[in-house]
Amino acid sequence: MTKLLKFQLWAGLLLICSVPVHATVHNITVGNNFFSPLGTTVEFGDSVRWTWNGGINHTIAADLSSPKQWNSGTTSSSGFEFLLQFTSGDGLGPFPYQCLNHLGLMVDTIFVTVPTDINDELPQELPNSYSISQNYPNPFNLSTAIKYTLPIRSNVTIAIYNVTGQKVNTIVEGSKSAGSHIVFWDGTDKAGKVVSSGVYFYRLIAGNFVESKRMMLIK
User: Fold this and answer.
1) In terms of CB atoms within 10 Å, which of 31, 68, 124, 146 comes out highest?
2) What does the DSSP assignment read for the chain?
3) CATH number at residue 32
């Protein structure tokens, strides 16, 4: 092997190693009684950073149903910055978490996007049936997440109904690709007005598949 060829190979390796891996840091603010924003969605390799500037004590930790367990390890009232990376080894989640000092009051969930394109770097095994999961959190206060799966590209409608059967809002409508999807409902009607506390139902219609589930909004 010539010296020139060796130099070109080493230069190529150095160039490859110097290219940064794409990753995004998603910032979540910890307030006195809230997380903002809610329902953060990340890609594999991304990190989430919780920042708290002080006030009342907080300890941010995964709840027991999360497949990825962690704990910020602090109850200091002086504030903290806590960074956590989500990798393919963790699975798709969802990753519910909470403040251990404010159980039931401060809860949220991290979601991971699911690649559905043949060009995606991380292929997925497509689901073999339609399904819609129970919303999380439930009951909820500010926002809740609904996950659904499609075995093939389908025309999808997900609508919200009150206990009298009246349609409150439509949160998904149109053609969606095969794979897993997540949609959020912020407790508003089709006019953008916040609805009252109570029991609501959400219904998935996709192809010939129809399924409804119950949820509770508490204000």
Assistant:
1) 146
2) --HHHHHHHHHHHHHHHHSPPP--EEEEEE-SS-EESSS-EE-TT-EEEEEE-SSS---EEE-TT-SS--B-----TT-EEEEEE--GGG-S--EEEEETTSTTTSEEEEEE----STTSSS-----SS-EEPPPBSSSBSS-EEEEEEESS-EEEEEEEEETTS-EEEEEEEEEE-SEEEEEEE-SB-TTSPBPPSEEEEEEEEETTEEEEEEEEE--
3) 2.60.40.420
Count: domains in the chain: 2
What are the structure tokens assigned to 26, written together? 């998603």
What global pTM score does this model have? 0.51
CA atoms within 13 A on the CB side of 188: 7
Average pLDDT over residues 11-20: 41
Statement: residue 52 has pLDDT above 80: yes
The whole-number pLDDT of residue 16 equals 39
Q: For residue 27, which phi and psi values (nearest 5 degrees)?
A: -95, 130
| pLDDT classification of 140: cutoffs 50, 70, 90 | confident
pLDDT for 1 equals 53
- Here the CATH number for the domain that contains residue 180 is 2.60.40.4070
Residue 186 lies in a domain: yes
In a domain, 125, yes or no: no
Question: Can you give the pLDDT at residue 195?
Answer: 94
